[in-house]
């Protein structure tokens, strides 16, 4: 920094001797001593001047700042004048006075004779003490010429000092004003804009003046912070006027005021400083009025008080007058400016007792100052905002215009941030933080926050930052959105992308290595073939078969068939190489048929414009395939080791083709080819469990064609002591499944698996993580026959465990006594189900699994565009039955021992009611008001009131565990099947009124009642079908059944019984078989007769669907369902199928609503899951052009609206205590939390919150979320709606180029 000599000294030093007397100067020394706020002058006189120049000096005193003065300093000079009289003088040195600036000591007429004795300085409260020595220099100007030179050169000294300051403002510490704004602009950190006042400890009252029109009370904002305040009452003041911040208050000339009752807080004793401030926008005109006042009559000099006024004073309209009076001394200050009428101005009247000064500020600039010794200003008058003549005071009138942001403080203020914008001190503090490079680690963020926030409740470092996280359990479910129709000319590829071309998806004819000898005849006679050609490419068989199955429900008549044009060597499209078809259907519109072709898996589909044709092609250019065992044929694997399996080529190769087989081995899997490797058929023998890839190459017509197939090999059995990993490695250690600390875990989100084939040894151990439940579901699905209790869960989840059992990733399984499998076979089945580690201990099969998705998300695999579908965290309650109960649909869930009540019109879950353990069925009384369940463990009946969803009765004690139950259609009876008898229970008393023993010691398995309730039919395990007259108790003949019965239903004239793959129709009058069918599902486990519709519904357990047949038993239609049907209810207009969801397939316990005609379709799927329940965060990930959105649910059930075709992933994240990953929690120090616990309020001030958000927004790492709920909960303005959650001005303003200069203050 360049130091310039004072202009006075430089100019005086060049003068010649004749001018020396007039330019003479004397530097006044201080008495030696320590630095202090008061210093005495050393004795001095002007004898040397008189001796040198023979004349008396003409004295003036100046004081020069030797360093920058950052805050306003009040200087008091004590002197002796006219011999012996002592006097003193106080004057202000403004804040920001640069070093080198000199000021005249305003002694007036005393200057000629004054001898300075001492000097002292005062600074505002809270500022560091200011000394005198080394900071100020006093000089006596002894002649008129010296005074003249000082006047002429003083401005040059100021400019030199300012130049030094400008040169020094190249860093944050030295910069002020616009220089700070320019530095902040380079950093992308602008100065905070003007903002309303928040909490300040010295505030007496704060009025934002944003009150409602309907309330006459004017709110004191301090009530929000302290619980007490000083509300006012308005008279003729109009809320809602345009204010400086939001709305303000409009005042009518001479008629409007707000009065605040007198309070001790407004008292101003002789030592009390205060500040009264507000924003004003005065109305035009010549008027006078009080803006803020607390005085009985400002025109009466003997009455104490104060007032801030606007009016025509001293010849200026809208001049500002600040008046103070203690009843004896009166101090008046005038701003001497005329306020504009089109903008808001900030006015502040200040009484500084420490300095003995009164000040008047306009827009933050000191407009007037005056020394004052005014005393106490206390009076009993109310505080007035505005003034009305009706009060009887001595004012000429009240304020006219708009007021906003009124504040009364018990402190003398000189800075008015934030209402005038952020001050330099605060802005400099922020820039000093952001100008350095901060690696956004939790420690650095914590330091930055505490540096910028300061103390809270006396705690110096109040903010904590933690990135310690708890992994949140997550789950996902992939669903494909299918188009409902394609418009003419529209195309779609397999990924749902519209507008693609065939060449980019499937290639062209020229790209294809084609030989027609590889074409295969399509031998399905259901379609109608046009053009006489039935040959296609081998890979396209699957797509065409899938399409035929899809159109089958619409293809019910023999003469209404799908028309297919296949291979055409003359075609200009891919039909010329056998990879495309042209489709048409007489009943299905082309737009819908195109959508079905897309659903069937064709790679590219086009609805040809101008025709009813649909064109579909595939991208697969292979000509041959390797055929052999079905995938998963061996307990979830393809083949067993050590058993040769034949492999063939499809289509059969021409005789002149040259073939070669080979095996590609990687990982633990090992296999060998048996026989000539050049033959058309080869045998593969597995040598070690794992996977291998078989390849065949065929040379024909100078071209090579190849095919590969990956085959998985499982063990023949897993003997005691053996272990196996998921990849087929044997002898592996349990550590391959990881440890309990891997992945997310929350016991609340474990999946409970209740399956009819699973016997749970101890209640509660059948809880596990979702990926473990998937594997267990595949294991149970592989058990055949699918009869109850095939597998026993010996050990499972243990909250107090030490291994994977503690987190639901380890199970111990064993076959039940009834199961037709060995422990070694169960081990093979567990390996095929996909468990990462399987061990046969000799007593149990222990399975372990790696950490994966913890939360299970269930829902359909496909949905239509425009549809809204429910996805849920499945309950897996193992529903076993359902019944209509009035307008409700009631399902009974054996696994959870509950009854679920649904609205039969909307599917909304009305309630879930716990009932006695392991219920076997459900029935409803005639009016549907009560439903009943029978417990197989407690051997009791539970009655549930449907309206209240509460248990109303329990009883009686049954002689044995119940097997099945039905309700009598006309009498208050329940008919219950026990293993050896049928009992009748009176529903009014829940007492057994009849016991009908089954003849011949047969064991009952199934029960049905004819529509009139006169006869009960019982199917027994000895393959007999028996009937009993309910009232008489007489048993009829017992016709023999060809197989063990699986399901039973009765109409008025027929009895229907299913067995494996078969249906028997019997005449109910004589029990003779009238019809039999063997075209059913492998395990048709449910039957329902709807006589009003002439329909019989069959539940297909193995194929997962519902089949409709006519009353004679002839097949009419089938619909696949996302779960095994456990109950079917039909009554004319509506058909319901209750489905048991399987974890491994994403299934959920649900109710499907079906169409009632021969063509079955699912019209709705209602999950048996609550709308609320456990908290989940749902989200959707889309691929390509797929579009879908969720309904915003945070419970266990969410609804997805599908918009555009493609694949989407529905994800659910559980909310658990602690931080989720990639989340940093911003909190409060424990000392503050302890204070709050003890009852001390902890408040974060508005300005502190804004600075916290500024730091977090500036230092925000990419991909990391800041959790600030604890901080927000302590910001009162947020709770009151006075502050935005994420203030825009707290974000950095980065830009690509150019300079972002702070906006100059304009008219508001």
From TrEMBL:
What top-level branch of life does the organism fall under?
Bacteria
Question: From which source organism is this entry?
Answer: Nocardia iowensis
What InterPro entries does its record include? Host-pathogen_enzymatic-act, LamG-like
The alphabetical list of record keywords is: Disulfide bond, Signal
- Tell me if Disulfide bond is a UniProt keyword of this record: yes
Q: Where is the LamG-like jellyroll fold domain?
A: 272-416
Q: This chain belongs to which protein, by name?
A: LamG-like jellyroll fold domain-containing protein
Q: Does the keyword Disulfide bond apply?
A: yes
């Amino acid at each position: 920094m360049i130091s310039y000599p004072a202009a006075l000294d430089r100019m005086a030093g060049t003068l010649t001797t004749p001018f020396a007397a007039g330019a003479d100067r004397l530097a006044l020394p201080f008495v030696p001593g320590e630095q202090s706020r008061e210093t005495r002058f050393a004795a001095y006189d002007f004898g040397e001047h008189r001796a040198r120049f023979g004349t008396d000096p003409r004295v003036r005193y100046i004081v020069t700042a030797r360093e920058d003065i950052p805050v306003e300093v009040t200087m008091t000079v004590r002197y002796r004048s006219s011999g012996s009289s002592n006097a003193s003088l106080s004057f202000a040195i403004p804040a920001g006075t640069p070093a080198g600036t000199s000021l005249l000591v305003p002694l007036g007429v005393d200057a000629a004779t004054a001898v300075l004795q001492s000097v002292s300085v005062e600074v505002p409260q809270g500022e560091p003490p200011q000394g005198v020595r080394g900071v100020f220099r006093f000089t006596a100007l002894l002649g008129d010429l010296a005074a003249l030179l000082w006047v002429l050169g003083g401005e040059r000294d100021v400019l030199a000092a300012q130049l030094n300051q400008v040169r020094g403002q190249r860093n944050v510490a030295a910069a002020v004003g616009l220089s700070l704004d320019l530095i902040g602009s380079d950093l992308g950190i602008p100065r905070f804009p003007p903002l309303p006042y928040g909490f300040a400890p010295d505030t007496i009252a704060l009025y934002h003046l944003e009150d409602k029109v309907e309330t006459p009370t004017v709110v004191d904002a301090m009530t929000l912070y302290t619980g007490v305040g000083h509300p006012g009452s308005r008279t003729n003041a109009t809320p809602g006027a345009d204010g400086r911040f939001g709305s303000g208050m409009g005042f009518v000339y001479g008629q409007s005021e707000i009065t605040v009752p007198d309070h001790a807080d407004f008292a101003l004793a002789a030592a009390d400083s205060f500040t009264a401030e507000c924003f004003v926008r005065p109305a035009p005109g010549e008027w006078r009025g009080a803006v803020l006042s607390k005085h009985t009559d400002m025109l009466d000099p003997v009455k104490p008080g104060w007032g801030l006024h606007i009016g025509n004073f001293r010849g200026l309209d809208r001049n500002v007058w600040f008046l103070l009076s203690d009843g004896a001394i009166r101090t008046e200050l005038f701003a001497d400016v005329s306020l504009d009428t089109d903008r808001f101005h900030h006015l502040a009247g200040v009484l500084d007792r420490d300095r003995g000064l009164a000040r008047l500020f306009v827009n933050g600039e000191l407009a007037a100052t005056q020394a004052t010794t005014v005393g106490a200003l206390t009076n009993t008058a109310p505080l007035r905002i505005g003034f009305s003549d009706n009060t009887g005071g001595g004012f000429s009138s009240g304020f006219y215009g708009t007021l906003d942001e009124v504040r009364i403080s018990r402190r003398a203020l000189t800075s008015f941030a934030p209402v005038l914008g952020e001050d330099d001190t605060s802005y400099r503090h922020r820039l000093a933080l952001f100008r350095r490079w901060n690696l956004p680690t939790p420690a650095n963020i914590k330091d930055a926050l505490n540096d910028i926030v300061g103390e809270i409740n006396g705690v110096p470092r109040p903010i904590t930052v933690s990135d310690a996280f708890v992994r949140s359990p997550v789950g996902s479910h992939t669903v494909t959105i299918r188009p409902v129709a394609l418009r003419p000319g529209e195309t779609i590829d397999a990924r749902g992308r519209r507008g693609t071309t065939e060449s980019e998806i499937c290639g062209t004819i020229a790209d294809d290595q084609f030989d027609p000898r590889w074409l295969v005849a399509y031998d399905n006679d259901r379609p109608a073939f046009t053009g006489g050609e039935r040959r296609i490419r081998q890979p396209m068989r699957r797509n065409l078969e899938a399409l035929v199955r899809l159109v089958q429900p619409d293809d019910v008549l023999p003469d209404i068939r799908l028309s297919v044009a296949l291979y055409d060597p003359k075609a200009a499209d891919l039909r010329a190489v056998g990879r495309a078809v042209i489709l048409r259907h007489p009943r299905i519109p082309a737009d819908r048929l195109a959508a079905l072709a897309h659903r069937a898996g064709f790679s590219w589909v086009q609805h040809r414009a101008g025709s009813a044709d649909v064109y579909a092609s595939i991208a697969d250019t292979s000509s041959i395939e390797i055929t052999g065992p079905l995938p998963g044929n061996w307990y979830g694997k393809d083949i067993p080791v050590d058993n040769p399996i034949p492999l063939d080529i499809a289509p059969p190769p021409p005789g002149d083709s040259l073939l070669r087989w080979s095996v590609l081995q990687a990982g633990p899997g090992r296999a060998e080819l048996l026989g000539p490797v050049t033959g058309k058929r080869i045998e593969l023998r597995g040598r070690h469990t794992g996977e291998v890839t078989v390849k065949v190459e065929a040379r024909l017509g100078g071209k090579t064609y190849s095919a590969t197939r990956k085959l998985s090999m499982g063990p023949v059995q897993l003997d005691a002591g053996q272990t196996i990993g998921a990849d087929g490695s044997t002898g592996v250690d349990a550590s391959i499944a990881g440890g309990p600390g891997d992945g997310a875990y929350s016991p609340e989100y474990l999946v409970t698996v209740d399956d009819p084939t699973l016997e749970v040894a101890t209640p509660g151990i059948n809880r596990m993580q979702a990926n473990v439940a998937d594997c267990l579901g595949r294991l149970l699905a592989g058990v055949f026959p699918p009869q109850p209790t095939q597998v026993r869960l010996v050990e499972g989840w243990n909250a107090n465990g030490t291994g994977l059992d503690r987190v639901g990733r380890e199970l111990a399984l064993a076959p039940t006594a009834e199961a037709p499998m060995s422990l070694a076979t169960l081990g093979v089945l567990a390996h095929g189900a996909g468990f990462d580690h399987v061990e046969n201990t000799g007593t149990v099969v222990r399975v372990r699994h790696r950490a994966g998705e913890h939360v299970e998300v269930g829902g359909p695999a496909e949905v239509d565009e425009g549809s809204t579908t429910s996805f849920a965290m499945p309950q897996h309650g193992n529903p076993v039955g359902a019944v209509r109960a009035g307008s409700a649909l009631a399902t009974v869930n054996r696994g959870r021992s509950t009854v679920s009540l649904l609205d039969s019109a909307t599917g909304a879950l009305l309630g879930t009611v716990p009932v006695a353990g392991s219920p076997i069925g459900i029935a409803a009384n005639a009016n549907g008001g009560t439903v009943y369940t029978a417990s197989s463990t407690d051997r009791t009946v539970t009655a549930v009131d449907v309206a209240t969803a509460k248990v109303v009765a329990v009883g009686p004690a049954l002689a044995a565990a119940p097997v099945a139950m039905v309700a009598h259609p006309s009498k208050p009876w329940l008919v219950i099947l026990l293993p050896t008898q049928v009992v009748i229970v009176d529903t009014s008393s829940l007492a057994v009124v009849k016991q009908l023993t089954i003849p011949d010691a047969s064991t009952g398995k199934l029960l049905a009642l004819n529509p009139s309730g006169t006869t009960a039919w019982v199917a027994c395990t000895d393959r007999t079908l028996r009937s009993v007259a309910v009232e008489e108790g007489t048993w009829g003949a017992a016709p023999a059944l060809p197989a063990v019965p699986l399901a039973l239903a009765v109409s008025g004239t027929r009895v229907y019984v299913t067995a494996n793959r078969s249906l028997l129709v019997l005449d109910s009058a004589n029990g003779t078989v009238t019809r039999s069918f063997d075209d059913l599902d492998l395990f048709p486990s449910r039957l329902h007769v709807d006589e009003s519709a002439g329909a019989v519904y069959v539940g297909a357990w193995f194929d997962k669907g519902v089949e409709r047949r006519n009353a004679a038993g002839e097949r009419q239609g089938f619909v696949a369902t996302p779960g095994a049907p456990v109950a079917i209810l039909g009554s004319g207009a509506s058909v319901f199928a209750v489905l048991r969801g399987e974890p491994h397939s994403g299934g959920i316990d649900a109710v499907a609503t079906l169409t009632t005609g021969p063509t079955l379709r699912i019209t709705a799927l209602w999950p048996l899951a609550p709308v609320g329940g456990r908290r989940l965060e749902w989200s959707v990930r889309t691929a390509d052009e797929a579009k879908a959105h969720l309904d915003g649910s945070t419970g266990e059930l969410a609804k997805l609206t599908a918009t555009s075709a493609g694949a989407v992933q529905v994800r659910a994240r559980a909310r658990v205590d602690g931080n989720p990953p990639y989340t940093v929690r911003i909190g409060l120090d424990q000392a503050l939390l302890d204070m709050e616990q003890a009852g001390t309020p902890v408040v974060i001030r508005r300005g502190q919150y804004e600075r916290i958000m500024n730091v977090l927004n500036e230092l925000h790492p990419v991909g990391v979320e800041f959790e600030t709920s604890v901080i927000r909960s302590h910001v009162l303005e947020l709770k009151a709606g006075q502050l935005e959650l994420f203030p825009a001005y707290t974000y950095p303003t980065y830009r690509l180029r150019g300079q972002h200069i702070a906006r100059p203050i304009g008219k508001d």
